[in-house]
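Can anyone check this?
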Amino acid sequence: MWLTREQQIAHQRLSEFRRRFSRELAGLFVQTVQLGREMGLMDLGLVAVDGSKIAAHAGRRTLDEKALRKQIDELLAEVEQLDAAEDAEFGNARGDEIPADLRDPKKRLEKLERALEVMKTSGHKGVSVNDPEAPLQRGTDGVRPGYNAQIAVDGSSGMIVAQDVTQAQNDTGQLGPMLEQMIENTGEKPTLTVTDAGYQGEENLRAVEELGVEACIAQQVQSSDPDEHFAQDDFTYVKEHDEFICPWGKLLTYRRDNQRRGQIQRLYATAQSDCRDCPYRDRCLSPKGKRRELYISPHLRLLRRMRERMDSDEGKRAMRLRSQVVEPVFGVIKAVLNLRQFLLRGLDGARAEMALAAGGFNLRKLAAVYC
């Protein structure tokens, strides 16, 4: 309103502006990050990363491929009837005289065909006709089409230093892209990055190692059920001899490399004689098993090191700070800026809205310094 000298602008123009200049809006967000750095507000000593599901501009109802094809067939028949009716009524006229209600079926047919096309390329089992790019996401209000919004927040200033919107169902592969964007936006690496257990997994562990970033990624607590089958964590690794020790004190030595689950894994195993009289045999082997085997994936070293870090005083302190740093930001974005549901459809539209919200959030932080 200030830019237009109090002139009223139709909401359609504002919506068109957001979509048309989505790339520029993302650039404005980056400028707020750089301005915060220049003002000395952020030190990147601790950066917390988190994700949150935001509903798409679509209802909860989705269609599978069978339902889509059925509706398409019905509309094709309806369109053929309409074409015949139009020819009888208008003859060889241009066609712009056709009332809007006669054109609707063709527009609906285009939306259904677009939804079917997206379903084929994305692999989604069900899609929303209104926003076929939005996969089903499980949020606090149940399952509905939506997107996975990601933010990284500087602990000292509370400003967002990286943001994105993805179609991913979870956060297991999102830490690497967020770190890369954070480094690009600020020009340096954070001293420590902290996330919740949603980010645990090989892909994120490898990302922090390859980028050379120190991180605390929470790990799910292992079950302490005394009757549970022994897991890999119950075996102690002896690095000097490249072997494992089982709960009964027997050795599992390296045997060979195996191609398993799409990657090379190292096989360690006991001798059959070691397991024959083991008191833990029922908890360690299958009924037909003769020896205990461990298939060790390449990221096991990273996983164990991360678990040790999370058990340290540094890891516990980082996790306490994480919730204080990043969770209130999503609270402000949803409750104060009212971004509980995207209004623009499609992934690009959702990204434009998120960039605008993140930039607006940072401007509030910058303004608080001057006011």
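Reply from J.R.: I decoded it. The two ends are 21 Å apart (CA to CA).
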